[in-house]
Structure formats: structure tokens, C-alpha cells
Specification:
Strand content: 5-15%
Order of helices and strands: EHEEHEHHEHHHEHEHEH
Shape: globular
Distance between the termini: 17 Å
Bound molecules: 2-phosphoglycolic acid
Number of helices: 10
Radius of gyration: 17 Å
Strand order of the largest sheet: 1-2-3-4-5-6-7-8
Structural class: alpha/beta
Largest sheet: 8 strands, parallel, barrel
Helix content: 25-40%
Length: about 240
């Protein structure tokens, strides 16, 4: 698969910042291999651009009386192509477990969304050599009952929780080993070679080093994605622009 860069803006930026961001991005030659995920509130501003757009979270339900939620069918009807699912902040602060994440993935796939599934271990799990076990459990449970054809619309993002927003990044060897492990688990489940992104403190300074990892399908960028010059530099490196 061709490499992609995903910008996870999280709950940042206000309308004027968004307008400036879009103006700046209009000046840059973008591609559909760049996926912008703003707050859902601002998604309509990003429609019909030469880059792709994604939502940061979707409901696990079809539609109806679920106050504050956004249905995958609504997301689809707006022309949004991707959804992040299972980000560690959703798991941690909103108590999303693997069962609900699995439901979200299935619901999103049924509405033609490409899913960016985030998985990763805590510092404590890493220190206790539990990383592989944690990742295996997340993959097996999150991807339960999803058939091989649909799995082709899923991208896994390996995001060590201890690396998100901290400036700490695993070594390339560590990332490479884990990507290979993730691929082997999904291959065991469904005999496919799943694309894997790395996320966690990726920035314009460390991207050249991270991009050397051969089995990497791209990166998921939080903090550095809020600044057009920084994300543009990351795109230049990863997408060979
Ligand atoms: P960060 O966030 O780049 O700010 O570490 C990454 C993420 O949470 O997706």
C-alpha cells in the first residue's frame, strides 16, 4: 500500500484557526494520501479538497436517540472517507472497550468508511513485557467477526500510549519489530498483509528517521499536525512530495 499521513487534530483549533489552516493547505500541493481529521464540528469545511478527510470517532449505532453521537451513515453522507477508531484517549477517558470498538469498526465499514484502528501499550505494560500480549488481545477482539474482504478497508495505527504527546519515541528497531508482530497476528486471523502506521510524538524533526522503517505504511500525527509547515514537512518526507 502507498504511504499515508494522518493528521489527528484532536479537540484543538477554533473556527478562525481552521480557516487559516485551510488557506495554508490550499497553497500546498496535497494528495488523497494525506488524511485530515479535524473536530467533527469542522468537517464540512474540509469537503472537496485535494486531500482526504477523516472523523476522529464514530458511534457504534446506526442512528436514532444517541445524544451527542455521530452516526457512520451521517459521516458517509458528508463524503468523509476515514474514521479513526479506538484511539487510546477514547479507550482511557471514555471507557471504550474492545467490544464497543469492534461494533464501531463494523458499523463504520458498513458505511464505506476506511477505519484507522489505534492500538498500543501503556508504559507499565511495556515495562512488564506485556506489549505483545496487549496488542494481540486488542487485534483479536477489535477485529472479531470482520471478514477478509472488509479487513482490506482497515489500517492499524500502532500508538504506544507512553509516546503520545510526550516526545518519547521507541527506537526504529522496536517499532519495526512491533509492526511485524502486528502484521503476523492479522495474517494469522485473516491471511492479509495489513498496513500499519506509527503514531506517538511524530514531528518534523524526527520524521526522516522514523520514515526509514521499511515496513511502515505511514504515520499518525497529533500535535505537529496543527501547524501547516510542520505537517507539510512530514508529508514531504513520507509521501515523497
Ligand atoms: P502526538 O499524538 O503526535 O501528539 O503524540 C498522536 C496521537 O495521539 O495520535
Amino acid at each position: 500500500m502507498e504511504k499515508i499521513v494522518v493528521a489527528n487534530m484532536k479537540m484543538n483549533l477554533k473556527i478562525n484557526d481552521i480557516k487559516n489552516y485551510i488557506e495554508e493547505m490550499n497553497k500546498i500541493q496535497c494528495t488523497k494520501r494525506f488524511v485530515v481529521c479535524p473536530s467533527s464540528l469542522y468537517l464540512p469545511y474540509f469537503i472537496n479538497k485535494d486531500y482526504a478527510i477523516g472523523i476522529q470517532n464514530i458511534s457504534s449505532n446506526e442512528e436514532g436517540a444517541y445524544t451527542g453521537e455521530v452516526a457512520p451513515s451521517q459521516v458517509e453522507s458528508l463524503g468523509v472517507e476515514y474514521s479513526i477508531v479506538g484511539h487510546s484517549e477514547r479507550r482511557q477517558y471514555y471507557f471504550e472497550d474492545d467490544e464497543v470498538i469492534n461494533k464501531k469498526i463494523i458499523c463504520g465499514l458498513n458505511h464505506n468508511l476506511k477505519i484507522i484502528l489505534c492500538i498500543g501499550e501503556t508504559k507499565e505494560e511495556k515495562d512488564n513485557n506485556l506489549t505483545n500480549e496487549k496488542l494481540r488481545n486488542q487485534l483479536v477482539n477489535d477485529l472479531k467477526s470482520i471478514d477478509r474482504g472488509q479487513l482490506e478497508n482497515i489500517i492499524v495505527a500502532y500508538e504506544p500510549i507512553w509516546s503520545i504527546g510526550t516526545g518519547l519515541v521507541p527506537t526504529n528497531t522496536e517499532i519495526e519489530e512491533i509492526i511485524k508482530y502486528i502484521k503476523s497476528i492479522v495474517n494469522e486471523i485473516a491471511s492479509i498483509d495489513i498496513p500499519v502506521l506509527y503514531g506517538g510524538s511524530v514531528n518534523e524533526k524526527n520524521i526522516e528517521e522514523i520514515n526509514k522503517i521499511e515496513c511502515l505504511t505511514g504515520v499518525l500525527v497529533g500535535g505537529a499536525s496543527l501547524v501547516p509547515e510542520k505537517i507539510n514537512k512530514i508529508m514531504e518526507v513520507v509521501l515523497n512530495k
